[in-house]
Design goal:
The chain has one domain: Aminopeptidase (3-Layer(aba) Sandwich), CATH 3.40.630.30. About 30% of the residues lie in helices and about 25% in strands. The protein contains 4 helices and 5 strands. This is N-acetyltransferase domain-containing protein. It holds the Pfam family Acetyltransf_1.
């Protein structure tokens, strides 16, 4: 099985959306008060905003003619606030592999391609968010050397 990584095109929209939708459905089942079940998780306008930009990238993994994974990246800067050190970092909006192709090293390859992309743009770090319920993702990212930087806490006020 040869996996090829490449920059996504407009024609890849539906395949990318289908892969990200798998993860969205997992999130909607675990946290139905936070995540909706949608047919199109990735809005077309947002997807198109990654085209022809040096500060954004969608990388797809494909086997033959089938897209089996995706990483969506963008460069960011810390907020302009005196208490924060100014920094430039890459943000990994999405990293997803189709369920049938998980645990075959595709996610690791997409992650490494994301690191390489970020380094090429002189990012100081690569950052992402993971929801606490998603233990599989937490283990995956920890295995790659990522560390927890902060947590968002909540209190349900409707009880």
């Amino acid at each position: 099985m040869e996996v090829r990584l490449r920059t996504a095109t407009g024609e890849d929209y539906h395949a990318v959306n289908a892969i990200i939708r798998e993860g969205q459905e997992e999130h909607a089942e675990a946290l139905p008060d936070r995540f909706a079940k949608l047919d199109h998780v990735v809005a077309m306008g947002w997807y198109r905003s990654f085209s022809d930009r040096t500060d954004k990238e969608i990388i797809v993994a494909e086997i033959g003619l089938h897209i089996v994974g995706v990483a969506m990246l963008e460069m960011k800067r810390s907020p302009n606030y005196e208490a924060l050190v100014s920094r430039k970092y890459a943000y990994l909006n999405e990293l997803a592999v189709a369920a049938a192709y998980q645990r075959q090293g595709i996610g690791k390859r997409l992650y490494q391609a994301s690191v390489d992309w970020a380094r090429a743009r002189e990012a100081e770090s690569l950052e992402l968010n993971v929801w606490e319920f998603n233990e599989r993702a937490l283990r995956f990212y920890a295995s790659l050397g990522m560390q927890t930087l902060n947590r968002t806490l909540t209190t349900n006020l409707l009880k």
